Amino acid sequence: MRSPGRRRVVREVELDEEIRTHFRMAIEERVRRGEPRDEAERAVRREFGNVLQVKETTRAMWGGLWWETLVQDCRYALRALRRTPAFSVTAVVTLALGIGSATGVFMVANGVLLRPLPYPDPDRLVLVTHGPPPGPFLTTSGMADRDYLELRNHDIGFEKLATFSNQPVTLTGAGEPARLNAAFVTTEFFAVLGVPCALGRGFAADEGSPGRDGVVVLGDELWRSRFAADPGVIDATVTLDGVSRTVVGVMPPGFDFPNGADLWLPLEIRIDPRNGRSRAVAGRLTADATLQGTRAGFASFTAGLPPPDGEVVSSVEPLGEYLVRNVRHVLLLFLGAVCFVLLIASANVANLVLMRTIARGHEIALRASLGAGRGRLTRQLLTEGLVLALLGGSAGVLLAWAGVEALMRIVPAGRIPRIESVRFDGVVIGSTVSVALIAGLALSLLPALYASRHASGRALGTSGRTSSRGGRRVRGALALGQIALALILLTGAGLMVRSFHNMLAVELGFRPADVLTMTVDLPTSNYPDAGAMRALHDRVLEGLAASPAVQEAGAVNWRPFGTRLVSGDFTVENGPDLPRGGYWAAKLAVSPDYFGTMGIRLVRGRVFTAADRAVAPGVVVVSRSLADRFWPAGDAVGRRLALRSDPEPPDWLTIVGVVDDVLQREITGAREAAIYSPYAQVTRPFFLDRMTYVARSAADSQTVATAMRAAVRAADPDLPVHTVASMDELVGLMTAQPRFQSWLLAALSLIALVLAAVGVYGVLAYAVTQQRFEIGVRMALGARASDVMGNVLRRSLSLIAAGLLLGVAGSAAVTGVLRGYLFQIAPTDPMTFLASTALLALTALLAAWLPARRAARVDPVAVLKSE
Q1: How far is CA 645 from the centre of its chain?
Q2: How far is the C-alpha of 222 from the C-alpha of 233, rounded, in Å?
Q3: How close are the terminal C-alpha atoms of the chain, in Å?
Q4: Helix (H, G, I), strand (E, B) or coil at 536
Q5: Nearest-CA neighbor of 109 among 305, 295, 331, 285?
């Protein structure tokens, strides 16, 4: 059997032979009629016409000519790109920057926002909420235990329900003591998510009851790091918070829901009237249930519950949307920014291609005069545009791959959920190819229209120096659009950078330099009451004070920028009656030397001393804002308050000092009104089971950290230490996400600025090239170089000014979306607008000055001779 390629070759040979036979027969016929052979041959050729056109018509009848034509057009396009390396490299690099930026950000957005959760039927997983909104005691909304148990008895579309919460536990007996993130879950938890154990089993239905709950499921990472991936760990025992538990299962790699859990423990739900705790609830919908129907049923269910005390959040939300709720708007913002970059890049290349097409006017007219129709010329230019776009897209994919790899290394830890899902896949590659094809068609459209209108023999007589007014307008409009889009991006980046600078300038209320922190959590199994906890803290602080590496040391239960902070009501003696929850203050327990170690300034009175022990009268130190609110005359010292809303006589505490306000929660938040108690007088274990020790020292941080660990080990060798970090690092973590967002937007803006400058330069440089003859004539008639340069710059200024005006208007309309990301700066800040406009104007003027300078150096004699 002959191959298709072989058959086509045979048919080509047969076609050539048939045409030659027709020629010979026609010539012989004329010779027989008496014509000379030479004249007969010429006459036959005239009658037969274009042999190549006849062949193409015949091939079209065979079928498959489109593929051959496409291959020819692609080869011609590649040859044309090789003949103009400067144009080709510029266009490919420009498209690579635009497509690569868009591909990189889309790859992150696809992994985080669009990729389904790695669970069976993820669209059936929901998060159920009916409880108070997040506040000082809650980080997320959830559902009270009594409401959860009631919901399980109602058929409103849930196949299974599970509730869960996170809590740290201490692992001992498996290497160094470690503080781990444990998820306490009801026994249906793994069935709700549809994820079985990779090793062993999940929880049995009765393992949530007392006496049967001594089991644990390990995470894959914990299993590998602490138990050397030993399959024999099943049925082994581990000690968590002093309690022995049996390992019954190991989860598969990558599973750490909820909130990066290291292990899972069974949770028993018991109704306690004194406990209004709220936990997250996950549910799996039945196969025939809809989200809208379930929401309606849940609304009916909650309407029958007892009236809530205060505000309540009630919803049924897809689990995937809940996980990415904090980053969705940020990613959409950057998707919009890279679309601007892609538009600028496409406009830039479209301008280059259009100018190159105009310069090829002689070639296009010659091909038209030789028989190429408008459709054939248009198809050729479209093919060239697609080839160029695919080359740029291929380079853009490589650029995106390298960029995302670098991005993953600098993205703030824990700030982007589902970051492990970010990878190249068919969706990303398909989207990139689609963008490249659309860009190729778009940037080929104007050149194709130009070619179809100018494919005439009249262009054969021109030198190629002329250009239509319509072409100049199109090129100017493209450059103007680039300037406007670049200014919008530049203004947005300027606002973000200034916002970040404002964060760095915030007065923290303490001096973070040379301060190292170390946090410990005390298990209730070893420290059952406040007295035992205070004794441990005393021993650790004595060890730190004795260390030569430590200059000052103190302790606080909830450090600034920590994960926990408790705020609550209080009562001022002889003061105004505050509405319940109307004015809260942070309640912190500290050591006497905490204020000095942290550099918190004393405003009035004194700080705590060693005399403020449990047997001494109760005292507190308050922050400046609280003192100014209740004692504006500055006489807070000596007054009394209580940390309860209904105090008994023993609850009254004397204010002995006033200190500066401190930022406790976040850089962009307000300074906390705070009440400090000496931990020696604190009797509630909840305020003492977590303590952060702070040490000030000019020594190397590693040396200080070693000394701090040694002090803890000397006090309790089984006590795990976690979160060893300097205050400078903690402050940096608070600004990590704004820094990342600012610099990423600034990088995109820099790309846009360079592309806009290249676009302005290209338009003006081409205009100067087209007008060399005119410039030469003017200079020959007496025009000075400065006049020529001024004329070019004036035309440039009109283009730049129009683009800047359009960009300022666009910035005023668009930068409002940044309002939620800005700190102490308005989205329409005039200084930022002015600086961004000035920077872009200077860059564009520099790009315009180079062609103007070249125009001023035109040699009129050489130009006139060449013409």
Answers
A1: 44
A2: 12
A3: 62
A4: helix
A5: 331
Where are the extended beta strands (E) located within 413-529?
515-521
Q: Where are the alpha helices (DSSP H) in 110-163?
A: 145-151
Q: What residue type is assigned to position 296 of the chain?
A: A
Stretch among 35-44, 221-230, 339-348, 570-579 having the lowest mean pLDDT: 570-579
Give the C-alpha separation, 487 to 802, whole Å. 12
Nearest to 403 by CA among 737, 114, 102: 102
Instruction: Give the confidence band of 604 by pLDDT, cuts at 50, 70, 90.
Output: very high
* Contact (Cβ atoms closer than 8 angstroms) between residue 344 and residue 762: no
User: Please, which pLDDT band fits residue 830 given cuts at 50, 70 and 90?
Assistant: very high
In the predicted model, what is the mean pLDDT of residues 605-616? Answer: 91
Indicate yes or no: pTM above 0.85: no
Structure-block tokens of residue 808? 């300022």
Do 388 and 353 contact (CB within 8 A), yes or no?
Answer: yes
- Band (272; pLDDT cuts 50, 70, 90): low
Is 547 within 8 Å of 706 (Cβ atoms)?
no
- The number of helices, as runs of H, and strands, as runs of E, in the chain is 25, 23
Classify residue 306 as exposed, middle or buried by CB count within 10 Å of its CB (0-12, 13-18, 19+): exposed
Q: What stretches of 619-747 adopt beta strand conformation (E)?
A: 619-623, 640-642, 653-659, 674-678, 690-696, 721-726
Q: What's the token pair of residue 398?
A: 């490589």
Q: Which two tokens stand for residue 641?
A: 């308050």
Give the 3-state secondary structure of 497-512. Answer: HHHHHHHHCCCCCCCC
Distances (CA, A) of 372 to 297, 366, 382: 69, 9, 15
* CA–CA distances in Å: residue 616 to residues 542, 609, 658, 680, 806: 21, 11, 20, 10, 71
The answer to whether 422 and 114 are in contact (CB under 8 A) is no
Helix (H) or strand (E) holding 523: none
In sequence order, what are the residues at sequence separation of 6 or more whose Cβ sits closer than 8 angstroms to the Cβ of residue 863?
772, 773, 775, 776
**β pairing state of 158-172 and 237-240:** antiparallel
Q: How far apart are the C-alpha atoms of 316 and 283, rounded to whole Å?
A: 9
Q: What is the mean pLDDT of the chain?
A: 82
CA distance linking residue 629 with residue 665, whole number of Å? 21
Strands 243-250 and 215-218: parallel
Give the three-state DSSP class for 671.
coil
Nearest to 130 by CA among 114, 146, 109: 146
Q: Other C-beta atoms within 10 Å of 18: how many?
A: 11
- H or E element: which one contains 53? helix 51-62
Interatomic CA distance for residues 802 and 478, integer angstroms: 12
| Mean pLDDT score, 846-859 | 77
Please give the pLDDT value at position 166: 87
pLDDT at 534: 93
Angle at 230 between CA 224 and CA 231, to 5 degrees: 120
Pairwise CA distance, residues 764 & 744, whole Å: 31
Q: Cα separation of 424 and 442, whole Å?
A: 26
